[in-house]
Each structure stands twice: as C-alpha cells, then as structure tokens.
Amino acid sequence: MADPTNLDLELERAADLLAGCTHNVVLTGAGISKESGIPTFRGPDGLWTKLGVPAMDGYQKFMENPRGWWEDRLAQDANPDPDMENFRVQLEAAEPNDGHRALAELERMGVVSHVITQNVDDLHRQGGTESLTEIHGNTSWMRCMACHARWPEAEIIVDPEDLPPRCSQCNGVVKSDGVMFGEPIPPYALQRSQLEALQCDLFMIIGTTAQVYPAAEFPQIAVRRGVPLIEIDPDPTALTAIAAVILRGPAGELLPRLVEAVRERQAV
Ligand code: OAD
User: What is the predicted pLDDT for the residue at 254?
Assistant: First the structure.
C-alpha cells in the first residue's frame, strides 16, 4: 500500500520494482518539463487556466480548409498573439532538465523500455530518450495527413503562394505534427502505446494529471492486467487511487534519486 507521506520508503519501493522489472513503460505529461521553464496546462499557472481551453473544432477547421488554415497560421506567425508567442518562445528556449536526463539514463540502464509522452516540446528526444512515442505529436515537426510521414519543421518548405504544403512522398496535405483538439491520435502512436500497455510488467506516470484520453487509458490497461503503477507528481492525480507507489515531488529531483537507488541495486 502506497504511503505518499514517506518519500524515502516510497523511493526504496520504486527502486525495488524498477530493479526487478523486465518491461517498464512510462507515460509523461507537462509536469516533467516544468523545471525546463514550460508551463503545465492545468493548475494555478496552467496554460489553459490562463488562456482558456482551445476551441474543440481546430482539427475540423483544418480538414475543411487546409489552405485557409495555413494562411491563418502564416498570418499569426507574422503577427502573433502575445500569450501564444510567449509559450512558443518558452518552448524554443527550453532545454532538457535533470528529470528528462535521468529518464534517459534509466533507459540506458535497462529499466525503462519505452516512454509515451503527451508533451510536444521535443525535450525527451533532446534529453537522450530513444524509445519514444509522442502521442500528441511534436510542435517542431510536420506530418503528412495521408501517409503519416513526419519531418523536422526545418525540412519542409512552406510556399505562401502554394498552400497547403504537400508530402514529397505521396502528395498528401502536410500539417504541423502537434495533435489538435478534435484530431484523432495518429494510428502508429495509438497502436504502439496500446501494445506497450499490454506488454509491460511495470508502469510509471510522471507529471500528468491523467485526465486526457486516450493517454490516461494506457496505465489503466496495465493496472487491470495486475501491473504495479508508480506515480511521480507533486500533487495527487486522477490515477493516485490505483498507484502502488507514490512519489510526491518534482520529477527533476526524484528521478535522479531513483537512478542512484537503482544503480546501487544493480551493483550488488
Ligand atoms: P496537466 O497540466 O494536466 O498536468 C501537469 C501535472 O504535472 C500535474 O499533475 C502537476 O501536479 C504536475 N507537476 C507540476 N510540476 C511538476 C514537476 N516539477 N514534476 C513533476 N510533475 C509536476 O498536463 P498533462 O497531464 O500533460 O494536450 O496534460 C495532458 C494534455 O492536456 C496535454 O498533452 C495537452 C492538454 O490538453 C494537447 O494539447 C493535445
């Protein structure tokens, strides 16, 4: 039974589980990037708390008129909304923190098999994580809506006279890779995440309120299979009640401590 008031004990329990697992899957959310200077979505300083939740019909509008969507985007790039511009600057300036780096180290140590992230900020990749599913996409990438090919944004030439940009492989319409409200999760990301939830023998959630689906479903699939769930978050989440181990605190402090505790176990 988890005791979130006893951090040292919960760290030991988490390290025991990590040292003994064979396939640990991790779901991360905005909280792991907070110490890189990127705001979360919910809570007192959250982006949605400040700006309101975006309209749910963003994807529908894109599909109805991709050219119009691209024209609006180029116009916004030229004359950005100050709050969104601030978020964009924070994303661009952000660097991986100790939490991202420790998670990548756990992968190298063989105790993290796959990371599913809801974050669009690229920081897991920059921090060294290799086995990664970006279930909500990546704002610095582009994606073909037909064949699902993905490219770093810099590789796509956006010609304002010939919108929308087209896929070099199949001529499909190209969109920013970030998953919009109302947009289905790309099938490769959904299938990989489901497979990971069905294969794992340990699941960790880090820095997510676990309120957004389908992402929040994956740890629940694992728990229904009898897999223990470790939660790392300064505050309770929607899945606290089903967590076997609860580490209360910032990921940037707790994940490096976990690395050390697992290393001690691997050394004996
Ligand atoms: P939320 O803003 O809902 O949750 C952030 C979580 O991070 C909260 O549980 C915080 O307590 C926790 N947190 C804060 N600081 C932390 C720290 N230093 N270390 C660890 N945890 C910390 O963000 P998400 O759950 O990621 O989707 O939100 C899910 C989705 O909702 C996002 O991907 C986004 C949004 O709508 C899209 O834009 C498609």
Answer: 98
